[in-house]
């Protein structure tokens, strides 16, 4: 095997070959580490893990459902509420109950945010601690 060590002919050209020896050394070390650790990982206690379930929360009968349609009309369950002061008085009567019911707001997709914001603000003024929004669940694939 012959090897040229500079000097002859006087050309000082850079070597264009990549030295792959360090790369091979690192890859062999990684291969050995993986071969040793894989059997350790697979020998674990056999446990049946629970499967993931994503279920939308169901509205409880004691919860208050307030709906806002696209025209801005407010509904308590299915009954229309004429104005915000009436809604405030109804919510104040519910806020003193123990346990306090949750308020679920169903806002139409085309409803103005201002109307829904006024409903949330009225709930806060009445002292309701839990306010939630009901949305459509994503389609299943």
UniProtKB/TrEMBL annotation:
Keyword match Transport: yes
One BP annotation, GO: protein transport
InterPro entries: ExbD
Chief place of localization: membrane
GO molecular function, one term: transmembrane transporter activity
Keywords: Cell membrane, Membrane, Protein transport, Transmembrane, Transmembrane helix, Transport
Sequence intervals crossing the membrane: 26-45
GO cellular component term, pick one: plasma membrane
First and last residue of the signal peptide: none
Record-linked Pfam families: ExbD
Topology term for the membrane: Single-pass membrane protein; Single-pass type II membrane protein
Localization, UniProt: Cell membrane
PANTHER family the record matches: EXBD MEMBRANE COMPONENT OF PMF-DRIVEN MACROMOLECULE IMPORT SYSTEM, TOL-PAL SYSTEM PROTEIN TOLR
Family: Belongs to the ExbD/TolR family.
Name assigned to this protein: Biopolymer transporter ExbD
Organism from which the protein derives: Solimonas terrae
């Amino acid at each position: 095997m012959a090897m040229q060590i500079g000097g002859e002919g006087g050309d000082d050209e850079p070597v264009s070959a990549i030295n792959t020896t360090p790369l091979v050394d690192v890859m062999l070390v990684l291969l050995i580490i993986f071969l040793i650790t894989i059997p350790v990982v697979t020998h674990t206690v056999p446990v049946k893990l629970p499967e993931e379930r994503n279920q939308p929360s169901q509205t409880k009968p004691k919860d208050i459902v307030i709906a806002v349609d696209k025209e801005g009309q407010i509904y308590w369950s299915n009954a229309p509420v004429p104005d915000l002061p009436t809604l405030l008085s109804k919510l104040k009567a519910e806020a003193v109950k123990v346990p306090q019911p949750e308020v679920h707001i169903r806002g139409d997709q085309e409803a103005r945010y201002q109307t829904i914001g006024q409903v949330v603000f009225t709930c806060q003024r009445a002292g309701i601690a839990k306010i939630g929004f009901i949305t459509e669940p994503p389609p299943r694939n």
